[in-house]
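Researcher: Here's a chain I'd like modeled. Treat it as a single chain, no partners, no ligands.
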Amino acid sequence: MGYVLRVRFASFFAGAAAASAVGLYVLHNDYKAAHQAISQQMNSLYESLDGRIYKLEKLKEAEVRKPEDKE
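Model: Modeled as a single isolated chain. Structure tokens:
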């Protein structure tokens, strides 16, 4: 009876370790996918904001040059 119980415990813990390893692998892949998605969103937001700032700077330069042209 003791041998059978040891085999059952060993099988249980081996299964638990395998399930834990697979769970960590899936969680790691999910984390990488989420990180990549957020990174892409932030890059697109940064590019959009950078474009807006560039346009505002050009507009400001054009406004500054107008008084110089009138003189």
